[in-house]
Amino acid sequence: MFLNRIFRISFIILIVFLPLLGRTEVKLPRLIGNGMVLQRDVPLKIWGSASPREKINVKFNNQDYRAVANAKGSWEIALPAMPAGGPFEMQINNLILKDILIGDVWLCSGQSNMELPVRRVLDLYQHEIEKVNNPNIRQFRVTLRYNFTVSENDMQGGTWVSATQQNIYDFSAVAYFFANELYQKYHVPVGLINNAIGGSPAEAWLSSEALKKYPELLKESQECAQPGYIDSVLNAENAYRKSWFSELNKKDKGVSVWSKENADFSSWPQMSIPGYWADKFSSQKNGSVWFHREFNIPDSLAERNAVLRLGRIIDSDSAFVNGTFVGTVSYQYPPRIYNIPKGLLKKGTNSITVRVISQSGKGGFVEEKPYEIRIGSQVVDLTGDWQFHSGAEMQPIASQTFFQYKPMGLFNGMINPLLDFAIKGVIWYQGESNTGRTREYAQLFPDLIDNWRSKFNNPELPFLYVQLANLGSTPKQPQESGWAELREVQRKTLEKPHTGMAVAIDLGEWNDIHPLNKKEVGRRLSLEAQRVAYNETRIVSSGPELESAEIDGNAVVLTFSSVGSGLYANSVLEGFAIAGENGRFEWANAVVIAKNKVKVWSEGVGSPQTVRYAWADNPGNANLKNKEELPASPFMITYDNFRFR
After folding, report:
1. Structure pTM?
2. The predicted structure's pLDDT at residue 23
3. Cα-based distances in Å from 576 to 474, 507, 613
4. CA–CA gap between residue 204 and residue 407 (Å, rounded)
5. What's residue 303's pLDDT?
6. Residue 46, strand partner residues
7. Strand partners, 357
8. Structure confidence at residue 4 (pLDDT)
9. Residue 643 has what pLDDT?
10. Cβ partners under 8 Å of residue 171, min gap 6
């Protein structure tokens, strides 16, 4: 009797809970989580997965929304447009998401100058960054992911974080300063989807449909999709690189010897730093070279915390202070900033030893970068003579394959998972990796904008971008420039509606592809955002934009729009070049003759055919701007586009 009763109870429990057996917990994409920012004033979509046919109930902002998962377990719920506000909670069945804001969401993409984090620009903005604490500005950092076979539906990692002291150093510097400008003006929460990958060319961000008009690029992506292809390439290259470094370390007679404090450096010759060793002392280009220097520390500064600054080094380095390892960087671009722990520096004579590895090209210390030790407000200069010795000479290492740079891979892995998430617009900083392929980029870049607008189902999606900054030495005579050609493509892309361009020709550094002045880049992007995305029709959002050119005797009169209060005319205009029928460019005279007009001529050119402005990798003193201090874009205009009086 007792056993029958137990059986009946067990049977009832089984009947009651049978519908729940096999059910899975509701799962959400990574973008939909605690701390997320949802786009204001547009319909929204919340989506995820669950058991097939499972009922989904979403409670948000005092409203209930319902859906049923399909046969594959997918579900989505449409939310109506809502104004800015928060923080809110959202309940999805038994899941509770907290601290949700409604504001403006910007997709921040491109390559390393967009990716570059706040921690890399502290030399300019440390005091400002130390005061940052704004929970209304948030970032979601998308994890690197490429795919050539299928379009990913979700990211591999990432969470929403606020602009607090705990998180700010990992924010994109350009994106943060852009967001801060907008927040200070509109006081609306800003969400940043940081989706940039250093070195990525434009084609990596195109979908398979967009690639169809580029047969060679499509073929390249299809090759990457072949089973086992990527693994075979990476395995072979990793084995080769491992062997190269292993051989280097075996041949390098300084390994585990010259890094020690008591090593004998007495016979080493000297070389002045910064500089490149192949230019100064040796035919050796690749392999390892050791550098050593002694310096004195006064009693008052000894045994304190300090920072070693070693500028930029090509390609990699390991640094030792008084025989103790203090830091290493494996590639050439990051600044070398190494902490020297308290107690390591001693009174009197101290030493630094640096092992530098050059993999290909020319190794050494980049000029006009800081080489010093900072102890509080005191600075010990490290430029000048160092002792040096070759560790081992090697053949240059073969180039490495980065599959994240291959066509379509980043779109599938990092853009496709975002397409259902409503955004305000895009900010884009890219182009360095497409220099040298300007004709192709003239199609790729506009196609990318169209492709993303189509995929986000928003033909008017604001797309704001940064024109390439100045880089390299300034030429003494007019010359051809691949960087100028790509800037011209970027300028002409403004013909597409709902676009804006931040000119950065005056913000670069001649010796660094990653200039530090990201605050002004962000500000100029924000000005274009105010015009394009926020419909501020009266704002002066850019520098002078070339509108037309007219022949006036042996001169050309250029007319500009976006002059604001007028062209700045308090200095001699520089950066203009003019060519006649022989196609040979000469530096030109230029003068402001009206609020929006510049006259350009050269005594040696009687029949002008082409006018260029700021046409160089680094145009140096090119200084055309409006009175709002916004610079003009570099440009070229030819005879076919001239007007005649």
Report:
1. 0.94
2. 52
3. 14, 19, 5
4. 4
5. 86
6. 77
7. 288, 316
8. 54
9. 86
10. 117, 118, 139, 163, 192, 194
Report the sign of the C-alpha dihedral through residues 436, 438, 443, 444, in that order. Answer: positive
**Per-residue pLDDT at 8:** 56
The pLDDT value given to residue 3: 45
> Where do we find the tokens 């609306």?
188
Contacts from 68-76 at CB under 8 Å and sequence distance 24+? 73/24, 73/49, 74/47, 74/48, 74/49, 75/47, 75/48, 75/49, 75/50, 76/45, 76/46, 76/47, 76/48, 76/420
CA pair distance 640, 610, nearest whole angstrom: 9
Q: Is the dihedral of CA 24, 30, 421, 167 positive or negative?
A: positive
Helix (H, G, I), strand (E, B), or coil: what is residue 249? helix
Q: What is the largest CA-CA distance in the chain?
A: 118
Report pLDDT digits (tens) over 293-320: 999 999 989 989 999 999 999 999 999 9
Q: Which two tokens stand for residue 472?
A: 């390299």
Supply the DSSP symbol for 500.
Answer: E
The answer to whether residues 328 and 319 touch, using CB atoms and an 8 Å cutoff, is yes
Q: Mind giving me the DSSP string for 358-425?
A: E-SS--EE-TTS-EEEEETTEEEE--EEEEEEEEEE-PPPPPPP-GGGSTTHHIIIIIGGGTTS--SE
Q: What is the pLDDT of residue 280?
A: 76
First to last CA, the chain: 113
- Let me know: does 180 contact 93? Beta carbons within 8 Å: no
The DSSP 8-state label assigned to residue 31 in this structure reads T
Contact assessment for residue 429 and residue 227, using Cβ atoms and an 8 Å cutoff: no
Other Cβ atoms within 10 Å of 459 Cβ, number: 10
Q: Which two tokens stand for residue 153?
A: 């539906």
Name the phi and psi angles at 64, rounded to 5. Answer: -110, 140
Token look-up 């669950």 returns 50
DSSP string, 41-73: TS-EEEEEE-STT-EEEEEETTEEEEEE--TTS
* pLDDT under 50: residue ranges of the chain: 1-3, 9, 11, 13-22
Q: What count of residues does the chain have? A: 645
Instruction: Report d(CA 524, CA 528) in Å as an integer.
Output: 7
Residue 14: what pLDDT?
43
Q: What is the pLDDT of residues 335-363, one digit of tens each?
A: 999 999 999 999 999 999 999 999 998 89
* Strand order across the 306-310 sheet: 337-340, 306-310, 371-375, 378-381
Q: Which helix (H) or strand (E) holds 327?
A: strand 324-329
Give the alpha-carbon dihedral of 621, 627, 628, 630, to 10 degrees.
-30
